Amino acid sequence: MQDVTLLTNCIVVLVVPREPEPVPSNHKISSSVIAGIVGSALVFGILILALSWALFRIRLRKLRGILEPLNPGFKNFDFSKLNAATNGFDRRNMIDVAGNVYRGELDGIQVAVKRLSEKSEEGAHEFITAIGTISALKHPNLATLMGSCTEQNQLLLVYKYMENVSLQHALFAEVKSELNWETRYKICLGVAEGLACLHESKLQVIHCNIKPTNILLDKDFTVKISDFEYSQFHDSKHSFVCRGHMSGEQIQGFPLTPKADVYSFGIITLEIVSGQEICPLGGREEVCFFFFFWAYKHQVEGNLTALVDPDLKSSNYEPDEAHTMLCLAMTCVNPTADDRPTMSSVVKTLKDSEKFGGKKKNLL
Predict the structure, then answer these.
(1) CATH topology identical between 68-160 and 167-356
(2) Among 85, 92, 179, 272, fewest CB within 10 Å belongs to which?
(3) Between 259 and 286, where is the model more confident?
(4) What is the Cβ-side half-sphere exposure of residue 207, based on CA atoms within 13 angstroms?
């Protein structure tokens, strides 16, 4: 009964929400105004793109005017011909997925066509810088440019195709090339001379991305270092497939010097002499670092020649030369950048090693 009394004494208040007051008509944004704003933004964006592309074409014409007298063989290719040569840039003709490079045949000549970002400020800047850099640096061990194409909003660079593809292919492909000692020594010296040219040129180029896929090999296994023209665009932490070829200062993001390339050269030399891949594609990074400590262990034990590829041991090779090259490689991979040699001194050591058969005690 008491509960009933309490209930009857309660006052129930119902709060009914008020309808929202209509927004005054002068506060409403009409659909026509919105459409006008969006349309204006689109037109402005298109104008900016068109202006950027026009400026790019002007800069490119000026650059060609400077470079053509210096490079008589440089050509402006028709897009239709390059498209036909690569079978419409068919993925089956792609020889470098990461670099967007396609193989093709042009007027009976095998070519490699590199496709850059289409019609973007970044791509245009990279395109112009690449042409300028590669045209300014001439050396037998640096890749050369045959020409370019900017038709139909495309940014294409055309290189001569390398018959033996790359060091990656020659050493580590399923059907790898038979590389004797003389050829391996030639490759090491070619890489060293190419890097020395980059470092000592007026442009003072630091490659930043030396790895087996960027060391191209022609029909005679002559080295042609590629991708140096894009050195300033490399993200030093992500341009490598794995960190095995990267120096400690590069991994940590410190300012780079030519000694970063020296470190990469040391790792490449260990791979060439041993026939072992420091970082197999898709392999774990622990494998990369194990490779280095494996080499260091043999150095401490005074048994560096144990690293030599068994395929070489069954043929005629120069043990003294191999020992010199391995010692040189271990000097190049010194964790302290200042204690690594310069590439010009590396070239001298390799040439002296060849001259003296690796037996001269003070080569290093």
Answers:
(1) no
(2) 92
(3) 259
(4) 33
- The strand pair at 145-149 and 101-106 is best described as unpaired
**CATH superfamily membership of 68-160:** Phosphorylase Kinase; domain 1 (3.30.200.20)
How much helix, strand and coil, in percent to the nearest 5, is found in the chain?
50, 10, 40
Which residues pair with residue 236 across a beta bridge?
none
Q: Which CATH architecture has domain 167-356?
A: Orthogonal Bundle (1.10)
> What residues does each domain of the chain span?
68-160, 167-356
CA nearest to 130, candidates 146, 145, 140, 120: 145
Instruction: Report the sign of the C-alpha dihedral through residues 151, 157, 159, 164, in that order.
Output: negative
Task: Report pLDDT digits (tens) over 285-308.
Answer: 556 667 888 899 999 999 999 999
**Three-state SS at 266:** helix
User: What is the residue type of 278?
Assistant: I
The CA distance from 302 to 35, in Å, is 77
For strand 145-149 and strand 223-225, is the pairing parallel, antiparallel, or unpaired?
unpaired
Strands 156-160 and 94-96: unpaired
Q: Residue 5 has what pLDDT?
A: 45
CA dist 113 and 333 (Å) reads 34
How many alpha carbons lie under 13 Å from residue 3 in its C-beta half-sphere? 0
CA distances to 333, 344, 362, 364 from 358, in Å: 20, 18, 10, 10
Where do we find the tokens 């180029």?
Answer: 205
- CA 106 – CA 313 distance, rounded (Å): 42
Task: Indicate the residue type of 236.
Answer: S
**Residues 133, 184 contacting (CB under 8 angstroms):** no
**pLDDT band per the 50, 70, 90 thresholds, residue 112:** very high
